[in-house]
Amino acid sequence: MTSGAPAARRAGSAERIPWRLGATFVVLMLGAGFFSCLSIVIAGLVLSRERVMGIGQALTMPLFFASNALYPVALMPAWLQAVNRVNPLGYEVDALRGLLLGTPAHLALDVAVLVVALTAGVTVAAALLPRLTR
Question: CA-CA-CA-CA torsion for 4, 18, 90, 28, nearest 10 degrees?
Fold first, then answer.
């Protein structure tokens, strides 16, 4: 026979799962949108497929290593912590960890930064898009 407490805990967590999955999808789309716009911005500036790939990787990999995806921000040197504070990927990782793993996160701040980053990315990409259509 099983007690009712574990079943109640499972029921409570099951009620939160759709909300967390929906929020996870939103965070992923905001991050993906920003990085897609980053690629369009690079393409609009360099106008060469080979250069887009090279420059894109040259920017994306340092952003990844400067985020909190690999190690905690508290262990980073001060200059790398400063880079992480302006890195949208760090906010995306923080939000995803909070949503998927239940770790402490600043979800409102994370989503706000991602929305601002995406808005800026769309604005700049839209301004450079005519260069790609020539």
Answer: 150
Global pTM reads 0.81
Q: Could you tell me if 20 and 99 are in contact, meaning their C-beta atoms sit under 8 angstroms apart? A: yes
CA–CA separation, 91 and 51 (whole Å): 28
Quick check: helix, strand or coil at residue 60?
A: helix
What are 81-132's pLDDT values in tens digits?
A: 999 999 999 999 999 999 999 888 999 999 999 999 999 999 999 999 888 8
Nearest CA among 93, 95, 90 for reference residue 111? 95
Exposure letters 5-36 (e unless 16+ CB within 10 A, then b): eeeeeeeeeeeeeeeeeebeeebeebbebbbe
Instruction: For 44-61, give one letter per residue: b (16+ CB within 10 A) or e.
Output: beeeeeeebeebbeeeee
Give 22-77 pLDDT, tens digit per residue: 999 999 999 999 999 999 999 999 978 888 888 988 998 988 989 999 988 899 99
Q: What's the CA gap between 55 and 108, in Å, rounded?
A: 31
